[in-house]
Amino acid sequence: MAPWLSWTLMQKNGSWLLSCPNSFSRVCSRWLGNPSSAPGPLSAFQNKPRPLEDLPHISLFEMIYRIVFQGFYNRLHELQIYNKQRYGPIYRDGQKTVSVNTPKLLEEVLRNDEKFPSRGDLSVWKEYRDMRGFGYGPFTEEGEKWYNLRVTLNKRMLHPKDSAQYCDAINDVVTDYIKRIYYLRQCSPKEDLVFDIANEFYRFSLEAIASILFETRLGCLEKEIPVGTQEFIQAIAQMFQNNMAAFMMPKWSRSLLPYWRNYIEGWEGIFSFGKQLIDKKLEVIQQRVDSNQEMEGEYLTYLLSNTQMSTKDVYGSITELLLAGMDTTSNTLTWTLHLLSKNPQSQARLYREVSTLVPADRIPSAAEVTRMPYLKAVIKEALRMYPVVPMNARIMTENNVAIGGFTFPKKTVFTLCHYAISHDKEAFPEPFKFKPDRWLRDGRKRPNPFASIPFGFGVRGCVGRRIAELEMYLVLFRIIRHFEIKPDLTMEELKCINRTVLVPDQKLNLHFVDRGCENAA
Ligand code: HEM
């Protein structure tokens, strides 16, 4: 999912980079080194809108210099912080693109969300489907059609009680995951190291989301992944590898260079796998209808049998939900274990919570994990420090909009700098420190609700939020109950890079020291 968001932004930035006639215009240095004097949410003492010329402006030349020559290319999240210090809380970085980087301004933008909020055009994601006659999903659809789609998809997904229905399915996957961790440890020289945990979480996330969406297991956690599943995983990788080129390169280059063929082949593999599973389910449903049997099942059965959605739209939506549910949860879990391995006191506190609130021989229920304040605080803090979607966007298509005392014409693109915002010193003192306690409701002052919104906001916010949270709580609970997580001291310091989602810059290995709870479920 996150790749889409960032690519939308890259595309926007890319297009103005190519087209902005004033790109070489002045670099506004009025606020250099003095962000406090920069324009910001100062509307309180502003009676009249401020002229847009007052906004700091980053030139094309400077953007290229930072990204290419200063190496911010894969550290765009750090560039947000750099630009905040240099230009202040709101600045223009294109003719129609405006970046905001404080909780207050973010709130102003999002409170102006229109009835059908838009993040921008994703036509490249639609082309394969147009060629093959598949529908769009919640990510690619826009306007009223998007709205109607969300009304359907939100049911059975958006509310915590909806996601609780999937608890048993997720717990089955978690059980297999814990078995796999035991197996992987055995394979390491000292029998407690797991190599490349991000890859293991990727398998877990794919297995979990597929078990909900397709109501079937894919075998990602088996020793040998089944051939069809392996091909599907490769197709996803192939599509993402060529995604950037597909967005950035001019159309005429598609027949000359291999990226477009590879990109389309990737989509082909993704859709043919999904279609096969959906068609199989359709057959089962048809048989049940023919023999007047009750319809039982989970998400796919609901979409296919209880809604007005056409099969072609089901193909489109299920594929998007599947793609959205993998990198996001897997990377968040990777960062969470990394942070816990480096913060043994927090880990010990989490262990106390998980080992006291549910008897050791019992697998926790959705209701139990969602009542665990520290478990939830740990995930929230990991998402604050590593918001898996580090930037997002909104385009107000209908009306002009007033933000930070300026009035922007309609169709202005707002870049929401979530990484800079969730590292705002005022909102989160010591922002680079892992402090889950910030999130506890124990009488302390609560953080500004807009300072960390990793799942987005409003009606266009993440549809999979409750499922993602449940998956992460259930698997983290079981991991911590079974193992003490310790860092691999032979590794260099782990840094974060922006590969459209925030990922570690190297493979993360971790020690899983068995806590020896013999009867632990
Ligand atoms: C840690 C896990 C996840 C994070 C941090 C995350 C984050 C996000 C964010 C920031 C957005 C954009 C919201 C906005 O523009 O306001 C989004 C949208 C979306 N997410 Fe997630 N997500 C996660 C997991 C999932 C899962 C598991 C699914 C599928 C079950 C999913 C499906 C979607 C879809 C379909 C959209 C597009 C919604 C729309 O445009 O209407 N996400 N997500």
From TrEMBL:
GO terms for cellular component: mitochondrial inner membrane. Its cofactor is heme. Heme binds at C462. InterPro entries: CYP11_CYP27_families, Cyt_P450, Cyt_P450_CS, Cyt_P450_E_grp-I, Cyt_P450_sf. GO terms for molecular function: heme binding; iron ion binding; monooxygenase activity; oxidoreductase activity, acting on paired donors, with incorporation or reduction of molecular oxygen. Keywords: Heme, Iron, Metal-binding, Monooxygenase, Oxidoreductase. Pfam families: p450. The keyword Chloroplast does not apply. The keyword Iron applies. Belongs to the cytochrome P450 family. This is Sterol 26-hydroxylase, mitochondrial. The lineage of its organism: Eukaryota, Metazoa, Chordata, Craniata, Vertebrata. The gene is LOC115026484.
